[in-house]
Amino acid sequence: MRFADRVLLPVAHGGANGRAAIPLGYFIRLPAPAPLPIEIQTSGIVTLDGAPLTSASIGFMDANGTVRWTGTDATGGFSLPALPGSYKVRVAKRFANGPMRDAITGELIDPTKIRIGAVKPVELLSVIPENYDDPNASGFKADVRQGAANRFVFQLVTP
Questions:
Q1: Beta strand pairing call for 40-48 and 151-156
Q2: Do 81 and 38 form a contact (C-beta atoms < 8 A)?
Q3: What is the C-alpha to C-alpha distance for residues 12 and 20, in angstroms, rounded to an integer?
Q4: CA-based, 20 to 30 A from 116: which of 20, 26, 44, 69?
Q5: Coil, strand or helix at 38
Q6: What is the pLDDT of residues 103-133, one digit of tens each?
Q7: CA distance 152 to 45
């Protein structure tokens, strides 16, 4: 067991004849706290039918259901910091089916000037087969290990 450096704990000693208490101290040894896990940089590439899948979202889902997201670049590449462990992987690429309209006036709006709650929801259509957006159905997993390359290739195929 590892121990932390000694810690000084103040102990009050009652004074006599109305005098102030004299602070005393002694040293005790406390167990050191467990080290925090270190995030590991992962990277990889995502392809669709052999071509880089650009502007897609890729998520690593841990056993608790927490998903860490990142996006793919122009080469289909991605990088994502993750804690050591096993992850189910999901990949999504969607686009809006139709223009965005103001929820009150119905007018077309500039997507760079969106106000929260002011946009009517639009249907999002998947560019890739939907099973890849389900971590339980995608068939992809990533085992992130300290000291390993942690480089992953996810090859999506359209039916």
A1: parallel
A2: no
A3: 10
A4: 69
A5: coil
A6: 677 777 666 655 555 555 566 788 899 999 9
A7: 7
